Structures are given as structure tokens and as C-alpha cells.
Amino acid sequence: MSSIKTTVKTEACSFSEYRIYPGRGQKYIAKDGKVYFYLSSKFASLALQKKKAAKLRWTQAWRRNNKKTKVEATQRRRYKKTIKVQKAVCGLTVEDIRNRKAYVQSIEAKNKARLASKEKDDKKKGKDDKKKNIVQFQRKKDLNKSNRINMAKTKMHKMMKK
């Protein structure tokens, strides 16, 4: 006799999650085309009555929900970190690309610094201009007030003369 091991293809019961060996159980095909395998008529009957397996104490679903069986611990997958790699493109070497990149970055940094200093100066000017504008506005307001008073006086004089 030879020591050859053969494996038997088993299915899992759709209700109890027990193993179904060949020649056992029944296959149920629902109207939507989904296929269910049941170990015995008891499981088929319970499933067709729409009983929940998680509420029956003898099912694997109930045991899993109530932590009666050990569930295999799944390890987190460790992903490799992606690394950026620069390659030569269109006749340019990697060094040329790096030099261009550094040159562009230096120009951008200078522009950024120049803009920041310009904004700073504009803010200073803006504060001074604001003060000037307030003073000018007050003067205009006073002038308008005095003009209105003068106009009212002239109207009164004209009316009195008549």
C-alpha cells in the first residue's frame, strides 16, 4: 500500500457553517440565482423560515459573536514604502535634472522673499495712508458741514431781503 494522501473537497453549510462532505446535504438555488448549500433538511428549513443563525446557540455564528471560539488573528499587512526615483529623460542626465530643479527652486525662493518684503512695505504704507485718509475725510466732513451752514445762512438772508 502506498501512503498517498487524497484531499476531499468540502463545502461550508450556508446556515451552520459546518463542513459538508461529498454525497451529503442539499443545494438550494434562490430566485435571484444565489446558490446555498445546507448540510441537512433542518438547516434548510431554518434558513427558509428566515431564522437568524446568530440567534441559535449551537451555530458557529452565535459562537463567534459571543467569543466562544478562537477567531484567527489577522495580521496587518505591511506595505513597502514607495521611493521616488529619478531617471534620465530625453537626453538629460539625472544630474542635469537635479541642477535645473535646484535652480528653479532658488529663483522661486527669491521671488517669494521679494514679494514678502513688498507686501510688508505696502502694509506700512497702507497704515500711513489710512491715517492720512482719515484726517482728509474729517476735513471734508467739516468743510461740508460748514458749507451747509453757510448756504443755510445765505438762504435766510435772501428770504429776509424779500
> What strand line-up does the widest sheet have?
1-2
What is the CATH homology-level superfamily of one domain?
Ribosomal protein L24
Give Rg in angstroms: 45 Å
Low-confidence runs: none
What CATH architecture of one domain do you see?
Roll
Largest sheet data:
2 strands, antiparallel
Short description:
With 162 residues, this protein is mostly helical. It has 3 helices and 4 strands; from the N terminus they run ββββααα.
Descriptors:
single chain, 162 residues, mainly alpha, Ribosomal Protein L24e, Chain: T, two-stranded antiparallel sheet, 3 helices, 4 strands, elongated, L24e/L24_sf, mRNA binding
Task: Describe the 3D structure.
This protein has a domain at 11-74: Ribosomal Protein L24e, Chain: T, CATH 2.30.170.20. It has three helices and four strands. It has helices spanning 41-48, 60-65, 94-161, and strands spanning 11-12, 19-20, 26-29, 35-38. The strands form two sheets. It has a two-stranded antiparallel sheet. A two-stranded antiparallel sheet has the order 3-4. A hairpin with a 5-residue loop joins strand 3 and strand 4. The relative contact order is 0.05. The model has no long low-confidence stretch (mean pLDDT 84).
Helices and strands, with pairings:
Elements: E1 11-12, E2 19-20, E3 26-29, E4 35-38, H1 41-48, H2 60-65, H3 94-161
Antiparallel strand pairs: 1-2, 3-4
